[in-house]
Amino acid sequence: MSTLTYGQLIRTNRNFRNLLAGQFISELGNWFNFIAGLGLIRAVSGASPMAAGIFFVCRLIPFALASPIAGTFVDRFSRRQVMIWTDLARVAVALMFLLVTSKENLWIAYVATAMLSVFGAFFEGAKNASTPNLTGREGLLAGTALMFSTRFLLMAMGSALGGWAASIFGYEVAFVINALSFLVSAYLVWLIPEESTRDAATGERMADRTKRQPFFREMRDGLHYAFRNHFALTILLMNVIWAVGGGAVNIIFERAGGVHFAGLEGWNPDMAVAVLWTATGLGLTFGMLIAHRTSIYLDLRNRNSTFIWVTLIVHGVLFSIAGLMPSLWLFTLFVFLSRSLIGVEYAIQETLFQRSLPDDIRGRISTIDRGAELTVFGLSSYAAAAMIYYVSPMTLTLISGILSASAGLVWFIRHRDDDFKFNTRDHQTNEPHPRPEAAGAVK
After folding, report:
1. Which residues, at least 6 apart from 78, have a Cβ–Cβ distance to it below 8 Å?
2. What is the structure's pLDDT at 216?
3. Closest Cα partner for 184 from 87, 79, 86?
4. pLDDT confidence of residue 294
5. How far apart are CA 250 and CA 385, in angstroms?
6. What is the pLDDT of residues 322-337, one digit of tens each?
7. What pLDDT was estimated at residue 199?
8. Which of 279, 415, 288 is nearest to 342 (CA)?
């Protein structure tokens, strides 16, 4: 079975175009919010590393805690309506940042950040569970790469524009743009037909309330599947271990750009941080966009499995080398190279993962995986904020790269001899997922 190219998918699939456009606009606003929120906290707190650490925890931990509930919710109810209502709720929450004017009401920024994170868990769960239905099997690789590459492109564009807007117009403009972006996203999701977000069989089971298990039973089933299915557990372990090192990147960019290179080379702190996030976004986007051609090459040689673990290790090594660089531009170069490699690896890995998940449990498994990763990511961010009092941001960069590279060892141990091809059925079936007792036998 062939896979659609990026252009073919965008031209022929209106529903996917609407979802992609909605994500594009809302992610642009999100990065305006991130740079402005971080700058606001830096200004109000007197550049406290712990204040920045709390901000990162508020972005990540609530998402992780809400993810199991969100995943069960989007498997059980209308994915389209979940996306619309969470977008509308985030319009109001994004405007709460305008109320932060001093250190005494800094808590409002933390609360607003946490609320955006919780609503984001529900939106992401519904979006990720819907994407394979919108793209179809032939369009899933292209759809996955486009969804993530546009997100990472917006990391680059939004970081650059957010840093520019914050330095020229002030933080308030960025927060208003973020609110408006959610409103536009809600409209674009509203244009997508309800039935296109699920397969027919799952839709019928969802409509028949007598066939539903109790809410917390379904949540438990998702947890059992994630931990007892060999392939799902590999992805979970690999992403969690990557996050042990990857979580430090928030503090690394904040201190390396906003403090170290700003002081060493005279950079504006907001612009220096934005440069690093821009390089990250561009690198991830580039990696995602070459994923289609890369997958064709790997399929012909049955090298998908080898590519995943080798790329994970090399990307971590490159990030560590960045910690040895004497200037912001050289530091940025190695960040770009590292993120380019992880971008193409992630597109291939995520497509294999999504194809392995039955529709009626996809929301739960994808949010459990994402939630676990972000829990560790958030804790790692906070730990890095504490470590920065004792080590330089450059030393922290070395440590982060080595820890992130270790994720490749998980894949090597568990799947080094496996062959994965995008033109086969992989692990996916059209049947409902097995009960957890049976799922334990799946390899």
Report:
1. 194, 197
2. 66
3. 87
4. 84
5. 9
6. 999 999 999 999 999 9
7. 67
8. 288
**DSSP-derived secondary structure letter, 357:** S
Task: Please state, in angstroms and rounded to a whole number, the distance separating the CA atoms of residues 115 and 38.
Answer: 16
pLDDT value for 202: 53
Q: How far is CA 360 from the centre of its chain?
A: 22
Report which residue type is found at 24.
Answer: F
Site of tokens 């901000």: 55
Angstrom CA distances, 1 to 16, 83, 98, 146, 352, stand at: 20, 31, 51, 20, 15
Residues in CB range of 150: below 8 A, 6 or more apart: 20, 23, 24, 27, 285
Residues (pLDDT < 50) of the chain are: 1-2, 203-204, 422-443
| Angle value at C-alpha 187, between 184 and 189, nearest 5 degrees | 110
Q: How far apart, in whole angstroms, are the C-alpha atoms of residue 362 and residue 343?
A: 22
Residue carrying the six token digits 């739960």: 364
Q: Tokens standing for 362? A: 């996809």
Distance between CA atoms of residues 322 and 334, nearest Å: 5
Please give the pLDDT value at position 417: 66
* Dist CA 396 CA 7 (whole Å): 41
Report d(CA 97, CA 95) in Å as an integer: 5
